[in-house]
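Good morning C.,

I know you're traveling, so I'll keep this short. The sequence:
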Amino acid sequence: MAQNSSVTLPPLSYTRSDFAALRAWVLRIPLERIASLYYSDDAPQRTHGLEKFLTRMRHDLIERALVLNPFLAEGLAKARLGGAITPTILDMLVKAADAKPARPAPEDLIAQWFRPGTAKMLLGETLLGHHLRTLADLKRLIELRGPTWWRPVPRIGEQRARAIERWLNRDALTAIDPQTQLQIPPEQLGQGHKTELSASPLPLERIAALPSSLDGQAGKNRARDFCFIRARNDLEAVHAYLGKFRHQPHTFRAYQRELERLVLWCVLVRKCALSSMLVDDCEAYKDFLSDPDPILVGPRQGRFTPRWRPFAGRLSPASQKQAVQIIRTAFVWLVNVRYLGGNPWVAVRDPSTEQALLPMQIERALPASLWEKTLAYLDELCADPFARQMRAARAAILLMGESGLRRSEAASALVSKLRPTDSEELWHSTSWASEASGAWCP
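The tokens, ready to paste straight into the viewer:
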């Protein structure tokens, strides 16, 4: 598929008359003469337009020649754009018509096989810090990113991406591993799509089992009394808790995200069963939330792709606090149903959400001189007794300038929404706003 990003149709077959007609057309013999020499009156080449047929034939032969030898691309560049074809080039095209196409090799350059525009888009991508160069690089990128690999690539839509995949899959050397392209909705997940958690993080739905030494069956904090749920290990206990929220999709996703992260941290980082966590483990996880381990961090990808990671980076203080609160609540439930003997998170304080104040950014503020000119110009416009709309505009601009309101906030500001406060200073501010609105919005 030289210089292409779409799947090619089966090659057309041409007769000796077609080749003779094309040679005559290249030599600029009139179409009427070519038609009378090589075709009958009812030949489809004539009835559907001889010039159109010969143009399409020439383009088809050029494409076949490029497939046979992609390095001819530069020499045939003008011919592809409709330029003149010499007899020598025509002979080469005729020979290529029945030749066996070249097979792409993993080490071949991307620019050798794709159109310049498509190649430019792909060559701008990076793979583990290095720019794509070869078909092997492209194959690996697709396998790492999964079925949505094309989304970050500018101007590579889904249809073009699927065409590229189909072309790569035509040859065993460049074929994409189908297991890396799974994108399975949770309701369609079967046991065949699940695996034991080992070295790489997996979403909760794809974890078939935790390592036997870390699955919590012998957890230090397991309750001695009769348990109210059937969970035999930590994974089943987490699923039992999340089942409470099966009819609350937003809550379910939030709780699943935090418990999923905790399970992965326990097994892959801390090497500790969830039901063996003590207060110092909880404190360690709280610190971890502010600076996650690289093994659990990566760019946002589909949940069922190989590059999926539970963290996209550091969490904000507010997100850290929410994570601790969700986990603490889950542990309360696990204690109440007698799966755990106690809740170590009750001894852990929430992360602080205090943030340093940033200096006010005034780069986009109007200079004082321009602000004064604006107000003076508005005063002139408002002098007209019929300029009610301009007086409303002046009131809005004054309100925005003095209070820092956004345009949308100023547009929805009404006198009826103003309320007095206990603060004398704020009362004067709102009183001024009320007077301004009342004076200029009759």
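Safe travels,
E.
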